[in-house]
Design brief:
Blueprint: H1 3-25, E1 30-35, H2 37-50, E2 55-58, E3 67-71, E4 86-91, H3 100-109, E5 117-123, E6 126-131, H4 136-142, E7 145-146, E8 149-150, E9 152-155, E10 167-174, H5 179-187, H6 191-199, E11 203-205, E12 208-209, E13 222-225, E14 229-239, E15 245-252
Antiparallel strand pairs: 1-3, 2-3, 4-6, 4-9, 5-6, 7-8, 10-15, 11-12, 11-13, 13-14, 14-15
Helix pairs in contact: 1-2, 5-6
């Protein structure tokens, strides 16, 4: 973790601790975010340290990558309906090509803060954005174009939502579910090279940096290799006749 990340992590931790104190002392829920996946992992770890369980992470739909953290008083059951998260839909001509980057860049350029923006799901002719309520009126009333493309906004969104990601399917055979073995297979390099990446801090599991070569990887884990991409580990096993391990994983594209 570099100095900037450490500073930002400290600020986020302080805000999360404040949220817990407000929930416990003022007996009302308090929210932080949107958080990215690394920040959400930090939040989960801090809640384990604080032994605080009455919280929830929600981004507007199941599988959200960017989520709002909510701390709740003990008398309240955390629920999606309490969260300050809204969906808006942008419609445009299918012949106009827009990407996640186009929407994010245009909105940040207009002064919208990143923390108020959740996932941005884009398909031909439609984008669904999950946002904090404080930016809803701005988007609906003042943002008529993304780049040079005319946009028509409306409140809410209908399912099915645009697909967030596409994947490449892969399989391999490894010696064991150790992190160095799985990193070698996912990165398409030797185990020695994969070990160098891990020691250099280039590899994380579930958005947490791991330096141990022998750390165990489990099914469902998200493996990130800086400069190489992200991978979902779908299957570990069964063992081959020679005692090695067949694995299946997907790469984000």
């Amino acid at each position: 973790m570099n100095r900037r990340e450490g500073s930002e992590g400290g600020i986020l931790e302080a805000r999360l601790r404040d949220a817990v104190r407000i929930a416990e002392r003022k007996k009302r829920p308090h929210f932080v975010g949107f958080l990215d996946e690394r920040e959400a992992a930090l939040a989960k770890g801090l809640m384990r340290t604080l032994q605080f369980e009455n919280y929830m992470l929600w981004g507007g739909f199941s599988g959200s990558e960017r989520v709002v953290f909510g701390a709740f008083p003990e008398y309240m059951e955390p629920a999606e309906t309490y969260f300050p998260v809204e969906a808006v839909t942008a419609s445009y001509r299918k012949s106009d090509s827009l990407t996640h980057r186009d929407f994010l860049g245009a909105l940040l350029h207009k002064g919208v803060e990143r923390e108020t923006l959740g996932d941005i799901l884009v398909e031909e002719g439609r984008a669904v954005l999950f946002i904090r309520p404080e930016v809803s009126a701005f988007l609906l009333q003042q943002t008529e174009k993304i780049g040079r493309v005319g946009i028509r906004w409306q409140e809410g969104a209908w399912e099915p939502y645009p697909v967030a990601h596409s994947f490449e399917e892969h399989s391999a055979v490894v010696a064991s579910p150790r992190l160095d073995c799985i990193t070698s297979a996912a990165g398409g390099v030797s185990r020695e090279k994969a070990s160098e990446w891990i020691r250099a801090g280039l590899v994380s599991v579930n958005h947490v940096g791991i330096l141990s070569l022998s750390a165990a990887v489990e099914e469902g884990d998200i493996l990130s290799i800086r400069g190489k991409g992200r991978f979902v580990i779908d299957r570990l096993g069964p063992p081959t006749k020679k005692g090695r391990l067949g694995i299946a994983f997907r790469k984000y594209v």
